[in-house]
Amino acid sequence: MKWYQMPENDVLHALQVDKHDGLSEQEVKKRLRTYGGNKLEEKERPSALFVFFGQFKDFMVLVLLAATLISGLLGEYIDALTIMVIVLLNGILGFVQERKAEKSLDALKELSAPQMTVLREGRWVKVLSTQVVPGDLVKLTSGDRIGADLRLLETSGLRIEESSLTGESVPVYKMEQVLVPSNVEIADQSNMAFMGTLVTQGSGVGVIVATGMKTEMGKIAHLLQETTTLVTPLQRRLEQLGKILIAVALVLTALVVLIGVVQGHALYTMILAGVSLAVAAIPEGLPAIVTVALALGVQRMIKRKAIVRKLPAVETLGCASVICSDKTGTLTQNKMTVTHLWVGGAAWEVTGGGYEPEGTFFKHGKQADPQQSRRLQQLLSYGWLCNNATLELRTEKQGLLRRQKQEYVLDGDPTEGALVVAAMKAGYDQEELSQHFSREKEFPFDSTRKMMSVIVKGRNGRRYVITKGAPDVILTQCRSLVYGTAEEPLTPARKNEVGQVVNQMAAQALRTIAIAYRPLDREEDCRQAFEAERGLIFIGLQGMIDPPRPEVKEAIMECRQAGIKTVMITGDHKGTAAAIAGQLGILTAGGKVLDGATLSKWSVAELEQVVDDVAVYARVSPEHKLKIVKALQARGHIVAMTGDGVNDAPAIKAANIGIAMGITGTDVAKEASSLILSDDNFATIKAAIKEGRNIYENIRKFIRYMMASNVGEILVMLFAMMLGMPLPLVAIQILWINLVTDGLPAMALGMDQAEGDVMKRPPRSPTEGVFARGLTWKILSRGFMIGVVTLVAFSLTLEAHPDELIRAQTVAFVTLVMAQLIHVFDCRSEYSIYHRNLFENRYLVGAVLISTLLMLAVIYYPPLQVIFHTVALTEREWLLVLAMASIPTVVLGGLQFMKRSKAASK
Ligand code: ATP
């Protein structure tokens, strides 16, 4: 018998699971051992050894190895050996970097791994999809990506999109009824749900019948081994640039060799020097360091609760000019408490905060007993019946003394939780209610309908529809209302009255929920929501506060200073939205509030005309979000858009930076996103943008450092050859500089802190090149200066000691190294070395110290002196070195700084 042919009991029996308790943890462990984790087999990764050897396939490294061979053949064993060691070290460094980048990207994948809600030991818990086993009972809600093959046991308007399996993109309805035939195609197995498919509507419960490679998806898994590209636009551009730079470096190097030979230098020396120079000057490691910098930045973002799903987003974040944010839970705390009620023409208030079900009721300002008002009772109890939230009193031991602390914890939607708490404050309890009413059917809430309904059966056998939702929507479905003690037709005057109450509540930033009902005829069967939600009797309103998150106001202000506009998009009432937007500083003078009804009428082009002035979009449906993104993009904005539901996915995808909520977000929204907020908090978006800007700046910093260093290295050799001087640096010194002096500090620059004003600059244009804002000039001028001072130090020493070339070369070597190590601090600022605290970046200080110490070892430790062709320097020579090395950065930077200060004070 196939699973879809078996009745529920047989299925549960075959899988040895109890429907009310699910599996025990012990049983799960046992089954995990038997069936293995719920994973599809992945393609094998390249081994560590493969990655390691990959480091040596670089063209220049091969040339270098060839040069080593030549040295070896010519009997220059020390040279040959040293070059080998340096090549090896270079390889190890590249290997470590690549592994590190890979690891942090893996960690990312794990963080955004899908989860499933399963029943374990009588409780619904969220577990990683990899940890589920056959027999687990699974709850499905709209937006879930199903993680295993299930036999469905309960469904409520459940629709699943199975295109990944069947190719059919229209979602199919699912039901729990047994199918009789034995050869039903997958596409027609209406009581089964399969791994990899998507719940687009409704909800359900199923039991897992297959996991991992045993699932239908597992059977075709080899078709799905897609690889995602992780290359960012910047990386791509740098790779292209790298090719140009290689050409330039090769030409210049060839020039150095040619002139050197013409000037009478030995061919072997010149070739070796030339090859070393080419190796040093070609920034072959640049893309790797960029990846590392991106990966490190991504790790910092994780610490700040922002999980990057697509690496290119890191770059785009720095360009964001508009953030469109959901209200509930992102700008606000999503901790709702009912404070105001309106029923039968009377206004009530109730005290208390949070989920603690204790509070006092006031009617028209006077304390009153809620049990005395039948209407209020109806409002509160119906609010609880049309509801899926549960409140649980949990006891936790806290602190050193392990003192017991009791706390009410909400499981479910906070809006519904608030209704539960309000009813409990009036003395209701769950058991009592469920004795009076049993639920027959549910039409789940969705943000397009903005309503939710249940059909319940009373003890007397009568059935009712109870609907709750946005008041304006509910009112259109009502024919009458309870007023005073009687039921009245819903006249325009009464509608107006209710509308005014809603507006008053909204002006106090309250979220409003209306509750209505209707007795059903004996035979009446509502199969779809619209059949139930009509001809209703309006009962009343509950207004709840949802306080803004305390850190959001400041974050919005910071964004504004950074040239980023924040826009609120919410399904909530216009008044509520405007009130909260006002409190948060989103809606300021001149800002417009637009509602969903208007958006529906307008085309993208019409919206484009006003989009820059709109600060709040209220009562929108998720479908409107796409229009907003398009209109903003048409105005040239780089848009970050948040979302959590299934219907948000298209807008999230279309936005330049799609952001999904980590806690409340559905799998569909997460999959469409490039960034996930693990705390759902707006302030995290700001932190991520700041980090994104910083990462980009850091990349610019080390490009600037490495390239200026390379320019210096090439120029000193080129000038010396042109002036007919001896070689200022020997091959091995050049290789050393490339490895130690260039490599370490550049990596430390990749971890640099943000400059004070990163969030005071306007967003970067996405078309801006890496070398924009004067970077080329900075690289060329500083590189030129570094080359010149090295040459001056070299020739002065040579003049003083004409027969001690090795001394002059040592001076040149140390000058070049020191000039670079000083220049690295200059690269930390867009302005000058004087604009930042030198010791702020501990990694950089460490890297510079290590580089300096290693350099001292090279010139003072006799065995290394032999290898690197150096001698110990005198004090006078050190003075010369330091004076020369500081000219490019300290002196020129100082002059620039003075000029800037003068200009500023004018
Ligand atoms: P956002 O999260 O985008 O800021 P929102 O959460 O306020 O928006 P929705 O959840 O779409 O927007 O809610 C829209 C309206 O639907 C609310 O103002 C409320 O009146 C009503 N509503 C919200 N949740 C429920 C629910 N669980 N049942 C019935 N009605 C609801």
Automatic annotation (TrEMBL):
Keywords per UniProt: ATP-binding, Calcium, Calcium transport, Cell membrane, Ion transport, Magnesium, Membrane, Metal-binding, Nucleotide-binding, Phosphoprotein, Translocase, Transmembrane, Transmembrane helix, Transport
Major place of residence: membrane
PROSITE patterns named among the record's database cross-references: ATPASE_E1_E2
GO biological process: intracellular potassium ion homeostasis; intracellular sodium ion homeostasis; potassium ion import across plasma membrane; proton transmembrane transport; sodium ion export across plasma membrane
A GO cellular component entry from the record: plasma membrane
Subcellular location: Cell membrane
SUPFAM superfamilies (alphabetical): Calcium ATPase, transduction domain A (SSF81653), Calcium ATPase, transmembrane domain M (SSF81665), HAD-like (SSF56784), Metal cation-transporting ATPase, ATP-binding domain N (SSF81660)
Bilayer topology: Multi-pass membrane protein
Pfam families with a match to the protein in the record: Cation_ATPase (PF13246), Cation_ATPase_C (PF00689), Cation_ATPase_N (PF00690), E1-E2_ATPase (PF00122)
Matches recorded under InterPro entries: ATPase_P-typ_cation-transptr_C, ATPase_P-typ_cation-transptr_N, ATPase_P-typ_cyto_dom_N, ATPase_P-typ_P_site, ATPase_P-typ_TM_dom_sf, ATPase_P-typ_transduc_dom_A_sf, ATPase_P-type_domA, Cation_transp_ATPase_P-type
Catalyzed chemical reaction(s): Ca(2+)(in) + ATP + H2O = Ca(2+)(out) + ADP + phosphate + H(+)
EC number from the UniProt entry: 7.2.2.10
Cation-transporting P-type ATPase N-terminal domain mapped to chain residues: 2-76
Residue ranges of the TM segments: 48-71, 77-96, 244-262, 268-296, 702-723, 729-751, 779-798, 804-822, 843-863, 878-898
GO terms of molecular function: ATP binding; ATP hydrolysis activity; metal ion binding; P-type calcium transporter activity; P-type sodium:potassium-exchanging transporter activity
Family as reported in the entry's similarity comment: Belongs to the cation transport ATPase (P-type) (TC 3.A.3) family. Type IIA subfamily.
Stored NCBIfam families: ATPase-IIA1_Ca (TIGR01116), ATPase_P-type (TIGR01494)
PANTHER family: CATION TRANSPORTING ATPASE, SODIUM/POTASSIUM-TRANSPORTING ATPASE SUBUNIT ALPHA
Name of the featured protein: P-type Ca(2+) transporter
Organism encoding this protein: Halalkalibacter oceani
